[in-house]
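This follows on from our talk about sequence and fold. Please put the record directly below this note.
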Amino acid sequence: MIEFLENEPKPLSNRVKQALNHYTCGYTQNNEVKVCCPSDSIRIPGGGNTGSADNLQDPPNIANHRNIRLLPRNCGLMNSDNRIKNGENAGLNEFPWMALISYRTSRGPDFRCGGTIINDRWILTAAHCIKGNRRQLLGVRVGEHDISTRTDCETQADGSRKCSPPPQDVSIEEVYSHPSFDSTLLSDDIGLIKVNRINLNDVNIMPVCLPTGPTVTAKFNHVDVTGWGFTETGRKSQILQKVSLPVVSLEECKRVYNSLQQNLKITYKQLCAGGRNDKDSCSGDSGGPLQVSTFLNDDTRYIQQGIVSFGHRFCGEEGFPGVYTKVAYYMDWVLDTIGN
């Protein structure tokens, strides 16, 4: 990165500036820009867009949408507590928008998918988690950290213990999968769950921010994925996990999945991440969030840019990135639905 900047003519061209935006990966607690330097050489594409050119369209403009007020401004705040890190375990209350979806199974109630709180009545998830599963859906849990304990506590740097309120279990009123969702192609894999009112006053519960304003078209090179590792076949961890993953270009992602000769088509409404010897890319839940930290509403906040959709059947295998629904392209549908 330093060598590239030293050799590039000054002042930097707009094309170079735009390309360098791909290497920003969030903000510090002091709102300083974080840069993630790649292991390979910096490459500046001639066209400027690293995604697919197939029918590329801009995300919908929702700046003046009548329901934009239903998205809280107090969202996605980064927890600045000084925690003792433990591997890839997330800190207590670090991602308070995480939600768990419970299902009826032959072995009793079980969490099989994740989601995120977007306001006090709505959970964002993947369509494949709810489409055709209405009878099996039991409810949604929010404010959870360690599934094995009723009250979650954590030891602080000064040796004191911090505990959170118990999680909230809320019932489901309605479910909505995107009308264009295709369970074979796994396209338009986004859904919404309307629940009984969530108490947002607890410290372990807060909505995530969704792409609005400048974050709709924001460029990012690294993303954070969080979850307990829920899939349709089981669970990886009792404690909420987090992992930072590199973004993979759509062209590379398409090439990889085309090689599998499966009936899948990667489009500009999806994004890909991981797959480069990232064994922990399995940490996310089906329907859970892919998020990026940025400066919004006078603070550093997490914006949910993606929803965990699908991946190669051997989770975390090198060369096979995970595929995520790109939330920005569905914000008009989200706002239309939550306004009903």
Summary: Confidence is low (pLDDT under 50) at residues 43-53, 82-87. The longest strand covers residues 299-310.
